[in-house]
Amino acid sequence: MILTNIPMVPGMKIVEHYGLVTGSTVRAKHIGKDIMASLKNIIGGELKGYTELLNEARKEAIERMIKQAEKLGANAVINVRFSTSSIAQGAAELYVYGTAVKVE
Fold first, then answer.
1. In the chain, what are the domain boundaries?
2. Are 63 and 86 in contact (CB under 8 A)?
3. Nearest to residue 52, comparing CAs of 67, 30, 80?
4. Which helix (H) or strand (E) holds 44?
């Protein structure tokens, strides 16, 4: 599956347009990671626990979007975008969306 954040796939022609496809996941902070993040905030540096959490969330949301696109017969998703929103205290949604197409 080709994924791109631009409205086309360079060197290829869009031959079918299937419409919007999405993927999302809601993740909550882990108390252990929260404690370590609080300590890291004091001394500075990357919050690796949160970085891993976000990487996992992005991967899962993308996989869900790809499955939806494959069910439609697409071989590419163009204009891919990410969005986040707070669901509850300590929990957030990561949402990915794009346009499913077939390219040749």
1. 2-103
2. no
3. 30
4. none
* Matching residue, tokens 């949301």: 61
CB 100 within 8 A of CB 74: yes
E strand or H helix at 51, and its extent?
A: helix 48-72
Q: Say how far apart CA 41 and CA 91 lie, in whole Å.
A: 19
As assigned by CATH, the class of the 2-103 domain is alpha beta
Looking at 28-37, 40-49, 81-90, which range is the least confident one? 28-37
Bridge partners of 40? none
9: CB partners within 8 A, 6+ apart: 2, 76, 78, 103
pLDDT for residue 63 is more than 70: yes
